[in-house]
Amino acid sequence: MIILLILSLLFFPEEKISIKDAWMRPASEKMTTALYFTIENKTGTADTLYKIVSGISERIEMHETYSEGDMSGMRKVEMIVIEGKSSFELKPGSHHVMIMKLKANISDRDTEEFILHFKQAGEIRITVKAKK
Ligand SMILES: [Cu+2]
Description:
globular, binds copper (II) ion, Immunoglobulin-like
């Protein structure tokens, strides 16, 4: 019985939240840049991304882009909800992460660390490569 349990854990690891295709735009110190990635939620329940932390800037916000009549632009959102068994793509022209007041230059092919905070999955650390 116990052997069966161990085998099932080995062959069917717990499905959870994963981050794919993360990238950010190169930018200079004191400037603002954007981070994009796809969140895959393989669990059966919704999860919420509510905070992103990194040492590379003074401020990090999640943004959405909108257009209402003649008005269009981007605005801050407090959280991103990823429904169960679905994925959510942050991409140019859509939801993105705004990295404000960079503490150093980010050059093409540099890598930076971010910690994503989810209500269910907890902290997920990602390494992101800069590309043009
Ligand atoms: Cu923005």
